[in-house]
Amino acid sequence: MQIKETIAVVTGGASGMGAATARFLAEKGAIVAVLDVNESQLAALAKEIGGLAIVCDVTSADSAEAAFAQIESKLGRPGILVNCAGICPAQRVVGKEGAMPLEDFSRVIEVNLIGSFNIVRVAAAAMSLGVVVNESDERGVIINTASVAAYEGQIGQAAYSASKGGIVAMTLPLARELARFGIRVMTIAPGIVHTPMIAAMPQAVQDSLAAQVPFPKRLARPEEFAQLVGHIINNEMLNGEVIRLDGAIRMQAK
Question: What domain range includes position 154?
């Protein structure tokens, strides 16, 4: 699928990998709708790239449906979805104050896994009604974001790993089901990315994290995530698979 003049939706687009992806797609000529709960950052990013800013809570069915109704009304049917919205809390199952509250686990699953599916279902419904765009009868591309924690979750990441493992697990069945509409589904599993959250850590901590990466000996850049998004969109044989973007890192227990 070509990027130029295609309507693209990026969730979690106000910062980090989402913002880098929104910028990349806009630079390549896409018409970009950026979704996030951070209204001020969202508005600034959308203004920068000439995109459409929509405040959206990915955990809400009503919010997601309203967001896509607005996209179709103002821009048209989307052909690209990149799900970057998510949270990354660390919490032990048994901590100093006892058992982890169940609602804390549920919240991570709700945002990362259910939130991703919520947006996928609405986007896929819209894409399925779109026109085919190439000789392969392609109508859309959906890219979800998992994490290497889906495979090597560390101590304190039971909830986060479960949420990202769910995204990995639903990649193939989504691709198989949506194939009849000409919609591809892929997932990217990043390693440690130099996002604002990482950048706020002490330099010594950042250096320690970078040292764990076999090669290159540094943290991944959000722009590299965006570049992979671009390749997935352009290469129509990429479907139903998870790609690790991690410099060959394999996370240790802690």
Answer: 7-191+221-244
